[in-house]
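Example 3.2
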Amino acid sequence: MLQQTRVDQARPYFERFITSFPSIHDLAEASLDEVLLNWEGLGYYSRARNLHKASKQIVDDYEGKLPDDYHALLKLPGIGPYTAAAIASIAFKKTHGVLDGNVIRVLTRLTCNDQQTSSAKTKRALQALSDSLVAPQNPGDFNQAMMELGATCCTPKKADCLNCPVRSFCCAHKTDSVDLFPVVKKKTPIPHYQLVTGIVKNDAGKLLIQQRGEDQMLGGLWEFPGTRIEEGLSKESACKSYFLAEFGISITIQSPLPAINHAYSHFKITVYAFTGTVSSNKSVVDENTRWVAASDLDDYAFHRAHRKLIESYLNRIQSPSLFDSA
């Protein structure tokens, strides 16, 4: 959970997760839907899918015990060099150096490394340096100290050099060039996509939801069907066209919901959602689509943008004056 989430944010999710899955066997036996529902809100859902897959592998291949070997850890889904080194050193006292963003910042400043940190060559050199510095007596403590140094003292901006315990042999501090390191690749503009979504009811008053494929971004999560708005189409037309093309059903648009803006790590989206009803119906039932009651939506794991849509929709139907057919 801490790979891309701060401790204070992750703590309540961790406590909920451990309560739901107190052992590796409980996690391995759970369904993916259960795992994602307990993870909902943390984002980066590939972490949850990989954790689930890794639990099954640990139970099947290692009798339910996490392997203590660095290279064996690397074979588990979702575990890369940084996580493997952290587990091996902290849990099993193996001398492997960690290399996360904080440690990269510390090491490039200590050595005035002016190479782009995104290059594979630079990462190999920094990994070798990290490995060479690890204290063999307490490798876990050393790695945690390096990460903490980067997180609390050798920060990206306004580094606290006066209180830094290693400033006496820091090249960047001696040359008054701390702000020049690490050298990072310039960010490209983040794309912004406009999407349209339909929250549509059938004759039984149930809503159509769709599960994303496991090989997709946000795989395994549920959402209301929708698509990117093609140039030249109005939002309503795009919504109607999508449902007809994707499911073979015609829908009658009722009213729009407030637009939802949401940002992911590499792009931003604006979701325009419409409530509606099915005006002509074909059977829309397969393993990835379901008609569900609004009251049952909490039983499914939705990504954050669509969880916001659910809140907006429920608020709307609870106020009949604002909704044409509650």
